[in-house]
Amino acid sequence: MAKTSTKSAGPANIDALWDQIGALTEAGELRRLSNAFARFVASLGSAPPPLVLAAAVLSELEGHGHSCVQLADLAEAEGSAGLAPLLGWSEEQWRALAALAGPLPKGVKGWHTLLSGCEQVWDRESFDYDQPLVLDGERLYLRRYWRDETQVARAVRQRAEAALPVDTAAVRGWLDTLFPAQPDAPAPDWQKLACAIALRGAVAIITGGPGTGKTYTVARLLALLFATAPEASRQRVALAAPTGKAAARLKQSIDKALGELAERVGDRLPLRELTGRMGAARTLHSLLGARPDTRAFAHHRGNPLDVDVLIVDEASMVHLEMMASLLDALPPTATLILLGDKDQLASVEAGAVLGDLCHDAHDGNYDADTLAYVAAASGEAIPAQYAGAGGPLAQQTVMLRHSRRFGGPIGQLALAINAGDGDRAEDVLRAGEGSVHWIEGAQPAQLLALAQTGYAPYLEHLRAGEQGDHEAWVRGVLQKFEAFRILCAVRDGEWGVAGLNEAIEKRLESARLLRRSGEWYVGRPVMVTRNDYATSVFNGDIGVTLPDPARAGALRVYFLEGDKVRSVLATRLRNVETAFAMTVHKSQGSEFAHTVLALPRERNAVLTRELVYTGITRASKEFTLVTPAGDVLFDAIARRTHRTSGLQELIG
Q1: Is 2 exposed, middle or buried (0-12, 13-18, 19+ CB in 10 A)?
Q2: pTM for the whole thing?
Q3: Is residue 61 within 8 Å of residue 21, measured between CB atoms?
Q4: How far apart are the first and last CA of the chain?
Q5: How far apart are CA 480 and CA 460, in angstroms?
Q6: pLDDT in tens, 225-273
């Protein structure tokens, strides 16, 4: 059906609107991409000012991680703060733009009527499929994000509804072996019942904070899958994670847990032989067959992955487009296991997929069938407080609730932050009980002193030189470097990544711990910032620059993957940055014995509860918080990340 043309406002009004959009762009408040997209939309036909506003805002929100804009948010735009909080603008900036785009439609119904009448918008009622915008109910999307979101929702819903046959008696026997009773252990054993639940569907989500045993649980789930499979020797299992570091940690953790299990099951199951065929954990890009010249992957619905079970760790980092591609490439008969902490930062790119998928995991909402199945298959009784009438996906989701690692001050601080309890967080920080430290009103020099102390061990090991075994020496350098890290909330400014890396380099050089000689120098830690398939290094990989033992004067960057070391000539790495300090986002999937979190002096929209929580939970033994202004911390604790999407509603 042809669209009804919507009459645009007069030239003076639209010209003033474009001028304001241009001014916001020049001020750095609006991406040039968002400006260009709004102009592209306007070029496709009659474009009333509200449509121009909606197009610019929608594109800008995508840059902030939102997959769509709610018409209700647009409906509150005129004369109020409107979308300013989501965009990181001042109320004055928003009101000025909204006024020039006005008069705006009244209410959600008014916006729906206007947008559905624009030829640039597909409202699912027409037969046109080339519009850049999609109107789905009360949400407006960029076309590709609408496609990705509906694809993820459909695939997850279908998998959650796909009931697999389970021999509950056999499963019960194996679970009792894999999870022997322990005196005084918390009840129920959420790890045990997670294995039982994962076995009965084509998708399962296991979420929980640090130390709750996600990989410990999955190792036992793997053993259970092999034990109950009709032909265990033919079971194809793949391990994956968003980054190389997370993938290496996943394989290392699972291998360790499986080694312990192999002794327990003995001759009943050739576990070492079966799991030895899994191969290394891979990045999602590598698993799907990413190519440098296209966004498309080698594996898709027409060329699916050759797997029966796919386990994805650090799923909170998986953005919407990647999850859509992953589900598209996964055979309908395969089982998908997602692991992650729903309370961590969401992906840098659009979407908060894991958070949307298990948004009500804390409440459980298990129906009567699930309660009965869990009791029969695991012998565990789910407490009545977690009973409910959740949808199919809720029945396949388990939240691990007991942390075996974070019982001390670090864990107490993480729990307080996650609960938004600023008073409790302050009490833990001020107590200063050994593993937690707080430097209030900090000056940059104090942070640089911490950096010198923290990085001295790896630099001293480096300077001592190898003692005959080159690989062992390299491994020692990398392990000592990985024991300490400074995390930042922002990239720019004296408390940001760029400024701190330069300052730390100068401090270490003045202390004669390293010697810089141009861009590349011995001891330089670097982070890969873009996937490079020619050298097999991926975004987020971290290595240290060391001499090439085979070529005098040449430098190589060495990377640690589990206990294995690999290297690439420094001159072949084009997309890297110095990594004494890194953003909290980039630290996901990593763990450091001593983690330092440096917050900036001024409030910033990126400072949220999830960011602080993620920074804290990177620390395994010691955590130091550095704040030049204390109120910035409490402002962050009070601010939760909000990403607009329709995924929860679409899954149902």
Answers
A1: exposed
A2: 0.85
A3: no
A4: 30
A5: 10
A6: 888 888 877 888 898 988 877 887 788 788 878 877 887 777 788 888 7
